[in-house]
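Summary of Year 1 activities. Much of the first year was spent building the evaluation harness for sequence design. The harness presents a backbone, in tokenized form, and records the residue chosen at every position. We chose the following record to illustrate the format because it has been used consistently in internal testing since the harness was completed.
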């Protein structure tokens, strides 16, 4: 009998090893972490991403908005709860490879039929001389039970490590959200300053056009011009007065959007727009591309997701191997409460080991294994795409900063030339040496150039914000 049990055990182990050898082969893919040596700019290891956002932005009103948003923004708070969920997942995975121990108390009642096998046995057994088993038979138990799956193939430990990497990925995801939030508030704030300046320029231009309209009316009364110039100048004034309300609507929407990001109901945004055109972007040091791997939270998030996916493949592979579980219990068991805590007669203990190898559902295990590998390959591509996008964003903004600087310098000269041309054209018109349309078109061109100048300054400030974000600064 003993020999047959040994043979049965070796037969089971042999079948398990044979089935383990049937693990399907998969194609492994390794991520490419190489990046270009430099951007399209002089190489410098100094990196603006290391600068804290409080030191990067010098506007106190903007800094208050950012600081409030980091505390109250709902999306950030949602992500914080996702991080808590990921942290709890680590605890759950850790508990899976520790022994599971519980204690229980139970009671039951059992009545066997007299003409059944067990009933016939009970009928002929005596507890003591002249005393038979009670009928029905009670069953009382108090015992501690333990079960433990021995983590031979590191399946459970790898699952715990995978949960750890996903927790770290969620933390990096929050950091990435912080950089986006700071950049979005800063860009919206500069847009608000630009709208304020455009509204002020429009008001001053309306004053100039109203003065011109007054002169044309006087010319009309003196019979020097016809009714047509009067109507043309009047229409131009009305058009720009109407244009004010479109800007006011954009100001309201931008203020409301900033308030939404800050996590509060609409209210006026404190700001100082007087010196907007005098704002000078800080000098930016882009460093070297390799620093993106440490500074960009989205790259670090993709890297953690990739490490988790690699471990998931190992976990899926471990499902092909036999699992070994140990179970045991210790306590007291009796049919009568008077005998329940009586040693050693009522002592109960069990100890068992179980080796389990999946045989029937191997197609499901193979599918799970192949899916885990496909997700790992997907994570590799996502990591490489994230690195490529990060490099592209920095490269774009490096060029953008340079182009916006040159464009702004030229726009300043254009505005200066057109502003002077307004006085020239007005003087020529008053001396009947220029047509009224020349005055009107000069005023239009000057207004458009001033608007373009403000837009270029806003784009210049946005480029500074965007490259700070692209480098991974702010978190």
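For this record, the design step produced the sequence shown next.
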């Amino acid at each position: 009998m003993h020999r047959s049990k040994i043979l049965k055990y070796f037969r089971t182990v042999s079948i398990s090893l044979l089935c383990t050898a049937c693990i399907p082969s998969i194609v492994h893919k390794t991520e490419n972490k190489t990046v270009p040596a430099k951007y399209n700019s002089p190489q410098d290891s100094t990196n603006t991403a290391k600068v804290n956002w409080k030191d990067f932005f010098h506007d106190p009103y903007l800094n208050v908005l950012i600081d409030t948003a980091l505390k109250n923004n709902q999306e950030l708070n949602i992500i914080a709860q996702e991080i808590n969920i990921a942290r709890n997942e680590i605890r759950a995975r850790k508990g899976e490879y520790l022994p599971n121990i519980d204690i229980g108390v139970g009671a039951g009642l059992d009545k066997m039929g007299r003409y059944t096998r067990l009933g016939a046995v009970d009928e002929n057994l005596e507890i003591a001389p002249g005393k038979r088993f009670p009928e029905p038979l009670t069953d009382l138990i108090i015992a501690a039970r333990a079960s433990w799956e021995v983590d031979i193939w590191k399946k459970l430990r790898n699952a715990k490590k995978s949960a750890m990497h996903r927790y770290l990925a969620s933390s990096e995801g929050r950091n990435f959200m912080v950089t986006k939030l700071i950049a979005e508030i800063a860009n919206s704030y500069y847009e608000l300053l630009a709208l304020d300046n455009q509204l002020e320029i429009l008001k001053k231009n309306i004053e100039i056009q109203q003065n011109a309209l007054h002169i044309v009316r006087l010319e009309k009364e003196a019979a020097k011009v016809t009714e047509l110039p009067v109507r043309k100048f009047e229409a131009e004034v009305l058009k720009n007065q109407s244009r004010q309300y479109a800007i006011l609507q954009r100001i309201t929407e931008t203020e409301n959007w900033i308030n939404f990001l800050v996590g509060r109901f609409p209210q006026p945004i404190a700001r100082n727009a007087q010196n907007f055109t005098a704002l000078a972007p800080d000098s930016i040091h882009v460093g070297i591309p390799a620093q993106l791997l440490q500074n960009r939270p989205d790259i670090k998030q993709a890297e953690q997701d990739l490490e988790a996916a690699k471990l998931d493949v190992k976990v899926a592979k471990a499902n092909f191997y036999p699992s070994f579980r140990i179970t045991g219990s210790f306590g007291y068991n009796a049919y009568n409460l008077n005998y329940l805590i009586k040693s050693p007669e009522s002592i109960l203990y069990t100890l068992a080991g179980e080796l389990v190898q999946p045989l029937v559902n191997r197609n499901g295990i193979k599918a799970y294994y192949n899916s885990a590998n496909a997700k790992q390959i997907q994570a590799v591509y996502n990591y490489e795409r994230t690195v490529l996008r990060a490099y592209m964003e920095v490269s774009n903004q490096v060029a953008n900063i340079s182009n916006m600087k040159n464009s702004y310098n030229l726009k300043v000269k254009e505005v200066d030339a057109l502003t002077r041309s307004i006085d020239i054209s007005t003087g020529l018109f008053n001396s009947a040496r220029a047509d009224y349309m020349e005055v009107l078109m000069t005023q239009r061109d000057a207004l458009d150039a001033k608007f373009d100048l403000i837009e270029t300054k806003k784009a210049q400030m946005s480029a500074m914000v965007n490259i700070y974000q692209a480098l991974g600064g702010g978190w």
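The longest strand covers residues 137-150. Quantitative recovery figures across the full test set are reported in Table 2.
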